[in-house]
Design brief:
mainly alpha; two-stranded antiparallel sheet; 20 helices; about 500 residues
């Protein structure tokens, strides 16, 4: 049932953006009362999810939803238009905000973290930015809130306040701002100068009269300018951000920043260049090869990392390029696979980061080499890790199998053997750096001198990771909603 059915459709967009923003203000106002502050966070997250569900219902019914805010210049405005890809991203982000908020309460308290009010404030403000990105009606609106998200998440990356956090924050901010200003902004200006519009349009805004070489250059600028997608060599911000608390890593890698990046690339591919238009550009193959290289190289680097969060970070770099590759295949199956991977990767990877935080909070271990026998002490936690890892590898019955299946179909449809080889190699490397962790946790003996008496993490930490692991299985057995939105993305206009 749509709880917001009495409202005009455009009002739902207002609520989607403003609910987390108002929640952030209320978090700041209640900062001296931690229980009330965290209750505000949870109520705000649940409220946002119900708003997004209302938008989802209308979208599946084919109801257009749009909202014009202000004209910056003639023909250039801040406006919002709902389309299926944005709805899919918003659904994932709003649902996982609920789960991550519960987890963050347990983690922040369990580790006696300071500045918790600032943490929850920035968290909510970041989600507000994400909602604006999800429903951006043109490239200008997308660019504005893309930048706002970068700035909103910076205090989360530097939360610890030590030298390592400050250095990580400088890398994070430096790479993301420089790529967006030097590349993305020029791509947007170039698109406007060629087409006279920044609107998102089904089939793209370019036509046969436009110079293919210039279009190819713009595609490259978009691909590297959207630095949050972490295409090599502009990926270092992502492992640098691992200095942040684990709930922030979960936010960055599953809910907000990286998904905003690959969502933006996929949206540009579908609604600025168009699937057919991409297939005519030589530069499309170049970006695809860069994505394929990123998949394989990042997976090899992940294999060398003993720090669990660092291994997961490089795994994310590789997995994001699945979505870029799916877009650059310029096929229906590839685009659907990329859209599906936004959801499937989110549930699987957030589970893995939750587990890393649970192990750190409970067992005070950060290294893969320290995890021998931990499955006996934390069986539920490591069962969740196993499910998340299987999804990253792309094996049934986990959700990652579905998106990888569509990506392989898309690659085979056009005989793109580089993509096929990269997907296969990445899959094998995923198995190589995840399966030994699972084996060690369950089948190796705890190392001599390790006499911990801990068991599972506290319930606010344990329950969220079990929920996301269950969702990873559920999406495999019931993928109808994300698949419907992914397919509708290619059929209707925003």
């Amino acid at each position: 049932m749509n709880l917001w059915q009495g409202l005009a459709p455009s009002q739902l967009i207002v609520l989607a953006v403003l609910v987390p923003f108002v929640g952030a203000l209320l978090v700041a106002a209640t900062g001296k009362k931690p229980n009330l502050r965290e209750a505000v966070t949870l109520v705000t997250a649940v409220t946002l999810f119900t708003v997004v569900m209302g938008i989802t219902d209308l979208t599946l019914q084919g109801t257009p939803i749009s909202l014009h805010i202000i004209d910056i210049f003639p023909g250039l405005s801040i406006q919002f238009d709902v389309e299926p890809l944005g709805v899919l991203f918003a659904l994932v982000a709003s649902f996982l905000w609920i789960v991550t908020s519960v987890y963050a309460v347990g983690y922040m308290r369990g580790n006696n973290e300071g500045n918790q009010t600032r943490f929850f404030f920035c968290f909510a403000f970041s989600i507000s930015s994400v909602m604006a990105i999800c429903f951006s009606g043109n490239l200008l609106t997308l660019f504005v809130f893309y930048e706002v998200l970068t700035l909103a998440t910076y205090p989360l990356v530097t939360h610890a306040g030590n030298d390592a956090a400050k250095q990580g924050g400088r890398t994070y901010l430096g790479i993301l701002l420089s790529t967006s200003i030097c590349f993305l902004l020029f791509a947007i200006v170039g698109t406007y100068s060629l087409t006279g519009t920044l609107e998102f349009k089904p089939g793209g805004v370019f036509d046969d009269t436009h110079n293919k070489a210039i279009m190819g250059l713009l595609l490259v600028l978009f691909s590297f300018g959207i630095g949050k997608a972490a295409l090599m060599p502009f990926h270092r911000w992502l492992p640098a951000a691992m200095v942040a608390p684990t709930p922030v890593s979960a936010l960055l890698h599953a809910v907000a920043v990286v998904k905003a990046g690959v969502f933006s690339i996929l949206k540009v591919a579908v609604y600025v260049f168009g699937i057919d238009g991409l297939s005519e550009l030589t530069a499309t193959d170049f970006v695809l090869y860069m994505a394929a290289a990123t998949m394989v190289i990042a997976s090899i680097i992940a294999l060398t990392k003993d720090n669990l969060k660092a291994r997961l970070a490089y795994s994310t770099v590789a997995q994001l390029s699945y979505i870029v590759l799916g877009a650059m295949l310029a096929t229906t199956a590839g685009a659907i696979g990329g859209a599906m991977h936004i959801a499937t990767h989110a549930f699987g990877k957030i589970t893995l980061f939750f587990v890393a935080g649970a192990i750190y909070t409970t067992a005070h271990k950060k290294l893969v080499s320290e995890l021998d026998g931990i499955g006996k002490r934390m069986p539920l936690t490591m069962a969740a890790f196993t499910i998340g890892a299987i999804s990253m590898i792309g094996l049934p019955p986990a959700a990652g199998f579905i998106s990888k299946w569509y990506l392989l179909l898309g690659a085979l449809d056009v005989g793109q053997w580089v993509a096929v080889i990269a997907l296969v190699l990445s899959t094998l490397l995923n198995a190589a750096y995840f399966i030994p962790i699972i084996y060690a946790a369950y089948f190796k003996q705890e190392k001599a001198g390790h006499h911990d008496t801990h068991g599972e993490a506290s319930l606010p930490i344990l329950i969220p990771l079990l929920i996301t692991a269950a969702m990873t299985l559920l999406v495999f057995f019931n993928p109808d909603l994300p698949l419907a939105l992914a397919k509708q993305m290619l059929e209707v206009s925003p």
